[in-house]
Amino acid sequence: AISSRSLPSYPLPSHYWFTEPNKARVAALTFSDDSQKATSLILTQATGLQEPKPLLSSERLMFVVSGNEQAELVSQLISLREELKCVNEAADSKLAIATLMHSNLSHFQNAQHNADLGANIVIQAASIDAAIQEITAVENALPKVMADNSHYKTPAGSCFSPMPQSKGGVTFVYPGVGTVYPGMLREFHHHFPQLFARLEREGNLKEMLQADKTYAEDSQEMSLSELAIAGVGSSYLLTQLLCDEFKVQPDFALGYSKGEASMWASLNVWKNPHALIEMTQTSPIFTTAISGELTAVRQDWQLNGDESIQWNSFVVRSDAQAIEALLPEFPRAYLAIIQGDTCVLAGCESTCRALLKKLGKRGIAANRVTAMHTTPALSQHSQVRDFYTQPLFDELPKHIRFISAAGLPTGAPINIDSDSIALSIADTFCSTLDFTALIQSARQQGAHLFVEVGADRQTSTLIDKINRSDNVADQYCTIASNAKGGDDVVTLIKCIGQLITHQIPLSVEPLIQGLEQQITTAKQLSGVSQGSAVNHQGELV
């Protein structure tokens, strides 16, 4: 079997060339001349993989400075500044900066298990001059940050937490439906070719990311089921990246709405999450009952076949109690989600607008047709439960505490067995989601550092707002591993930098390997290298 395409005369898109499972990549290149004769060249992919593109470069700098006392940290920052100035004047500054980063990160990698390491300052910048400015900014902020024991970070990604309490409280947060966006994660295949090759061997990566629509040249409308699949897919890929490549281990996990399904799919609990792709595409739950025709709503409202439904949902800045007090007057409007200083109101569009008018609030229309978290969804409880009753791995993660909205208000953990997981998802799916209470419960259970693992950073923003309104923002931090509109790699490196300053055990080996590759290449180009290195990884795609 082959996965083939003709190479066009215009530049190819930069996204990954996805293949069907167990198919090789084959390309046909056709030349024609004035005599009307055509010559074709058939290219077939061999077993080797392309070398990973380095994550760090002269345009993406990262350094870690460690020390126990303020004076020691300042001394280390001064030393780094002087080294950067020397690098700036070097004949081959690209080789010099790669060598300096390699030395710095290798030292950190070897020393991070040392209990006396102290605090970590991370410097990130887009150039040597910018890195020097970042060092100055950190130096100026250092006395106050240490006095207040606060968390400091700059827009470029430099950060510092003097005495973080995050170890043991790393919480992976899985976003819900609708955070996926065109072109998401499109750069990662250049930097993690082995990961992409493995994911393609394990299942249909193209379908998992809904690549035909996610990476289409023109923006494409996605159905609820397509959004759900791509949402789980992006979370699955980012989880593998953080856990397998950077060796980050979460202590807790939770999901926003359908993010609970992403949590079980991504963290080695469900044995075959790929099987859910086709099921989601064809299940009446997602295609007609709570989306599309809204048959569950028709049944609940007892509508005739010729009566139409104008469904919408609105984000409104209001407390839940004010909305709940009005709901009896507006029986076709529902409080779907409570999330910090906003709520999501869903239902009959005209009814919702009438409720908002009486409330004296403006709502932002989401223009998405889903009856999740509303009363009509209750009729789908048993179907949702059956849908998510999935086989589990024989070896299950013992170090992660899984938190579900179904465990509220007590915060009881969900037993890791097939029936309990399915019931918890059905309970969450078919009830009002109190995301505020879920985050408060997670904090009480020991969650300290919330790491959003999925497309964009919408859930991180919500958690920040919840923590601020509870006046605990100085005690808890949120980190996004991805951001719409940002550079995939820069956002990932910022995420790793924050984990480092929070003293979370991890590996920076992917960063070091890329730098080693750059150093070798630079030496070869300058004629320093004796002999050449050949990278043949022998991985079948």
User: How would the global form be characterised?
Assistant: globular
| Named CATH architecture of the largest domain | 3-Layer(aba) Sandwich
Question: In the residues, how many domains can be counted?
Answer: 3
| CATH homologous superfamily title of the largest domain | Malonyl-Coenzyme A Acyl Carrier Protein, domain 2
* Top-tier CATH class of the largest domain: Alpha Beta
Q: How are the strands of the biggest sheet laid out side by side?
A: 14-9-8-16-17
Could you describe the largest sheet, including whether it forms a barrel?
A: 5 strands, parallel
Mean pLDDT over all positions: 91
Share of β-strand residues: 15-25%
Structural class: alpha/beta
Report the CATH topology name of the largest domain.
Malonyl-Coenzyme A Acyl Carrier Protein, domain 2
C-alpha-based Rg, rounded:
26 Å
Show unreliable segments.
7-12, 529-541
Distance N to C terminus: 12 Å
Number of helices: 20
| Number of E strands | 17
Please give the share of residues in helix.
Answer: 40-55%
Domain Malonyl-CoA:ACP transacylase (MAT): 173-486
GO molecular function, one term: transferase activity
Protein name: PfaB family protein
Organism: Vibrio lentus
